């Protein structure tokens, strides 16, 4: 008798990771300073494998740069499921000095409820507006990573406006010193409501010890810079040190090695979650009313049209239309117009509800008899969670498809409605 053994290998993946990177700082074993001209590149490996390339958040926790002038750039490249790359380039000039040290706390998150916008190596210091991927991003903060200078600089970076479609970032210039900036690097981090909790915005002009904060479940405490008030009298020499016991966490900011000069700055202690409780679910289709009529102007209309009653939007154009319907609407009323032709029938599909297994759909078929040239569908959709509802409407001459886009750990699309012409 032969025995056959089947070995099944299951690969486990991680959804978050974090560590501290010190190789760009001479103050640490294995680290070195960046003497211009120089290019430094280091690959950082995760503790395990992600299912998808994660988003990388950077929190600068040590900065030691030359005075009164320094010129360098920083970036992240080549993010994979196993690693990513830090790049540092220091430029030579008659006056530019070295980067003695930059230490980075990095956080990796594989979750679509977080969005990270990278603005590396900005050299035109203007206010910017960035598009949102997820209309349910309700909280935002900035992480200032690095800056190069050729004189005194006084500035803050603010997330000045957040809408369902975009976020605006403002760089303040109270003393007209932005002309002394050479390069600036920052990230814009957005998340759903539970993802980000901003504790405070703190300006320090001397050694600072934070209050002791109660540890938050499934969250990191980070302390990103958001502004500097630097007079170039000495090096930028700032170092964050974090402490923790079983219940609380706190930190200090001080000048490296106890140097007398302290660089005034603003930072923003913030909790960021890496495991979420909120799950975004699709709307339920609670009412469908179907009417067959003869419409006098049917020949002048497209094969399919969609009207959203709450927003008074009408979608007629062929192709794909994306809509975000405000979370304050407790019901969403849709009307779908379908032209009906002889020797054709209209088949329709409606996603009944999110959790009603096994019968999750309603399906109908209507023939186009006699003078009937139009079938109207009136649909009531009930949100299952208070959130902006992102709809994708796809129209062609032969069908109408309506999907809902959901952002959880991964992005999914749930088909809500499909109406199509088919031959009898």
UniProtKB/TrEMBL annotation:
One GO MF term on file is: carbohydrate binding
Kindly list the biological process annotations in GO that this record carries: cell adhesion
Residue ranges of the H-type lectin domain? 42-109
Q: Which InterPro entries match?
A: H-type_lectin_domain
Offer one Pfam family short name for this entry. H_lectin
Protein's name according to its UniProt entry: H-type lectin domain-containing protein
Phylogenetic placement of the source organism: Eukaryota, Sar, Alveolata, Ciliophora, Intramacronucleata
């Amino acid at each position: 008798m032969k025995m056959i053994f089947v070995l099944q290998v299951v690969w486990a993946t991680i959804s978050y990771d974090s560590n501290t990177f010190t190789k760009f700082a001479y103050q640490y074993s294995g680290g070195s300073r960046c003497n211009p001209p120089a290019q430094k590149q280091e690959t950082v490996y995760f503790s395990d494998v992600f299912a998808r390339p994660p988003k990388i958040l950077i929190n600068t926790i040590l900065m030691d740069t030359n005075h009164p002038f320094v010129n360098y750039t920083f970036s992240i490249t080549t993010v994979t499921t196993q690693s990513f790359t830090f790049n540092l380039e220091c430029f030579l000039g008659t006056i530019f000095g070295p980067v003695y040290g930059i230490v980075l706390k990095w956080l990796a998150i594989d979750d679509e409820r977080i969005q990270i916008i990278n603005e590396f190596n900005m050299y035109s210091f203007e206010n910017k507006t960035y598009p949102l991927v997820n209309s349910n991003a309700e909280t935002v903060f900035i992480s200032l990573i690095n800056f190069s200078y050729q004189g005194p600089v006084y500035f803050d970076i603010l997330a000045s406006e957040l809408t369902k479609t975009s976020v605006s970032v403002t760089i303040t210039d109270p003393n007209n010193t932005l002309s002394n900036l050479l390069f600036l690097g920052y990230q814009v981090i957005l998340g759903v409501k539970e993802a980000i909790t901003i504790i405070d915005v703190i300006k320090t002009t001397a050694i600072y010890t934070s209050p002791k904060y109660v540890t938050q479940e499934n969250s990191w405490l980070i302390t990103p810079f958001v502004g500097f008030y630097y007079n170039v009298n000495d090096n930028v020499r700032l170092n964050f040190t974090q402490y923790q016991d079983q219940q609380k966490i706190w930190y200090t900011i001080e000048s490296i090695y106890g140097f007398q000069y302290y660089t005034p700055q603003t930072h923003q202690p913030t909790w960021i979650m890496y495991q979420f409780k909120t799950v975004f679910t699709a709307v339920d289709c609670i009412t469908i009313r179907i009417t067959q009529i003869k419409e006098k102007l049917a020949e002048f209309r497209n094969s399919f049209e969609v009207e959203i009653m709450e927003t008074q939007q009408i979608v007629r154009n062929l192709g794909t239309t994306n809509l975000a319907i405000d979370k304050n609407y407790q019901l969403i009323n849709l009307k779908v117009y379908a032209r009906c032709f002889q020797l054709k029938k209209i088949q329709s599909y409606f996603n009944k509800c999110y959790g009603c297994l096994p019968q999750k759909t309603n399906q109908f078929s209507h023939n186009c008899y006699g003078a009937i040239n139009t079938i109207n569908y009136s649909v009531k959709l009930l949100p299952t969670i208070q959130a902006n509802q992102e709809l994708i409407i796809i129209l062609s001459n032969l069908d109408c498809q309506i999907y809902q886009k959901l952002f959880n750990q991964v992005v999914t699309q749930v088909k809500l409605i499909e109406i199509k012409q088919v031959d009898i």
